[in-house]
Write a structure and sequence with these properties.
- With 89 residues, this protein is mainly α.
- The protein has one domain (2-88).
- Helices cover 85% and strands 0% of the residues.
- It has helices at 2-18, 28-57, 60-88.
- Helix 1 (2-18) crosses helix 2 (28-57), helix 1 packs parallel to helix 3 (60-88) and helix 2 runs antiparallel to helix 3.
- It is elongated, with a radius of gyration of 15 Å.
C-alpha cells in the first residue's frame, strides 16, 4: 500500500488541480524517493498496527485491514504535504 501509493502521492494533487493526468509522473526522482520512504515507513507501521487490531477483533481479516490502513498513513501524510506545497506556489 505504501510503496504504490507513494509513487503517486506527490503527483496526484497537481494532476487533479491542473486536470492533466500526465503530471502524475512529472517528478520521477521525488516519486521514487516517496515510494521508498512511504514503503518502508508503511511496512513498519502496518506491521505494528495490524496485529494489534487483529488481537482486538480476533480475526485475520481485521489484521489485514489494520495493516493496510497503517501502510496508507505515510502516503496520506506525503499527499497532504504535496497539497500544502501546491497551495504555496
Amino acid at each position: 500500500m505504501g510503496s504504490v501509493g507513494g509513487l503517486f502521492a506527490l503527483g496526484i494533487v497537481r494532476a487533479i488541480a491542473k486536470h492533466n493526468p500526465a503530471l502524475l509522473i512529472d517528478t520521477p526522482i521525488l516519486s521514487l524517493l516517496s515510494c521508498l520512504v512511504c514503503g518502508t515507513i508503511g511496512w513498519f507501521m502496518g506491521g505494528q498496527i495490524g496485529p494489534v487490531i487483529g488481537e482486538t477483533f480476533r480475526t485475520q481479516r481485521a489484521e489485514i485491514i489494520g495493516g493496510a490502513i497503517g501502510g496508507l498513513i505515510p502516503v496520506l501524510l506525503v499527499a497532504a504535504w504535496g497539497c500544502y506545497m501546491m497551495s504555496q506556489g
